[in-house]
Design a protein that fits this description.
The complex is a heterodimer of chains A (247) and B (310).
Chain A (H helix, E strand, L loop, with lengths): L16 H7 L3 H11 L15 E3 L9 H25 L7 H25 L19 H22 L7 H28 L25 H8 L6 E3 L8
Parallel strand pairs in A: 1-2
Helix pairs in contact in A: 3-4, 3-5, 5-6, 5-7
Chain B lengths: L2 H11 L3 H5 L2 H6 L13 H10 L10 H26 L9 H22 L29 H26 L3 H26 L29 H8 L14 E2 L2 E2 L14 H6 L7 H8 L5 H5 L5
Antiparallel strand pairs in B: 1-2
Helix pairs in contact in B: 5-6, 5-7, 6-8, 7-8
Classes of the chains: A mainly alpha (247), B mainly alpha (310).
Amino acid sequence: MSDKLTPFFTSTPLPRRTFLRAAGATVATSTLVLAGCSDDDGENTPTTPSTPLLSYTNGVQGITANNVVFNYLYSLHQLTLAFYQAVVAAFPTGMTTAEQAGFTDLRDHELIYTESYKYLLGANAIAPLTFTFATLTLTTRAGVVAAAKKFEDLTVAAYNDVVMRFSTDSTGKDYLLFAGKIASVKARHAAYVRDLEVAGSFAGTDVVTSTGDLAGLGAVLTPSAVITELAPYFTVTVVTSNTAALA
Amino acid sequence: MDLFKIISDIEKVDPEVYDRFDTRRRVFKHISGMGKAVTAATLPGLLGTMFNKAYGQSSNLSTEIVQTLNLALQLEYLEYHYYDTGLKTSGLIPSADIPAITIIRDDELGHINALRAVLGSQAFSPNDPTRAAFDYTAGGKLPDPFANSANFYGTGQAFVDTGVRAYKGGAPSLMSNKAILTAALNIHSVEARHSSHLRLLRRGGVSATADVTNLNAKPKSWISGTDNGGPVPAVTAPVYGAGSDANHPAESNVTQANINVQTSSTAPTGLTITAAAASEAFDEPLDAAAVKAIARNFRSAVGATAGLFN
């Protein structure tokens, strides 16, 4: 790879910074935007969230869109790592030796992803997050596999979306290459855990379109859609609407 | 206060703000309706928004994009006819696996159609290459893949893994057109799902453990090191080996973005990050020249005359 990548946080600011500055990366603005986005409460008064907010701009003035996207991906891998770590620490009943080996690999891969993203993001990196899996059933094989499927499919759909969010210069190309190398491995993960749940469902019609003009293409989900699905597992309220990088 | 007001305000200081959103603009306009409402049922609509823009652009595609997509298209034909022939060979595929192979075959057809929709008249040929354009024994160097399912899945794995690496290698050439880049990398993720499943079948199904001393025959669902050269190293080693230059290392590579991802990762107490895991976590791109060299093994005289993989 090019040697441009290592010091991500010193990258030349993008033209988009004007927007970022205007949109603001502060918690205060985030709160207002979040309230403005809500479509199911009839009131106009912004409400104060009961949990802390997480912004992928990390409050870094002039943070590049590339780094905002990496923070988003970093958070997804933090979540998945925490999940697999919980599984590996206490394998559920009914999980075979082969499956335990598979899940250990998944945990190891996620550890490598989170550490690598953290390292590359440097001063731009969001803090380590905590998660809650209280709504999942981690004591049974079925519960673990169902949750793994959800997390893996969502991450694949997230990667399918972010590839267009990097800048088109040589710096953005380096970010794309790094993320792209992970994207296909995540698809391998997803197919594996899906096959554990239902044999032959590795590319089921709920994740790969089977008819029409889009046949053979996989699911794509925007950051806001992904975070909505994953919100129950975060212990912070994740904001994606305060930056054009994730719009 | 709402998002559209914010964007409107920004437009006053940054008139190009809408251009910056580019293909995301239409998605963005629907943002207030998304969130909780996104389910599997709404996915095709979202996909359509993203990809309609990619289709029918053949008149203004760069030479680089045309070349990259045409190589991908030729690889898709190689794969399509392979699975199609397998499905038409009575008794080859165990009945329990036929639905899976059918899904893979049909996905490849979908990829052919998507690539043709983007390329239009710039496709390498207006006609579909036929089965006769391909020789799936690689000139006799591989056992007949249609003789038994082990052979069939082995060569199939080599094809899908080549495909994943080819799309990844082509991605930088597509960056100037984000809609096409998105479509191509999307296809690449579906190919990776196929690979994962074929690898599972090869090692004996969900209950079987991969054999790290014989990854050739019993691979993991992901590529570990170079998989010891793949199913038949004499032919498939280049599928997992290094490409034509330093930007295309072998699958065993553990240096990403100039960092050694094995040694830079801080493992929790009691845990060791192995080189194997570090290599598995990242798939590597392969350059067009290396991809073509692999693929040319599988064209017949008919395919050579047609100029496939030149």
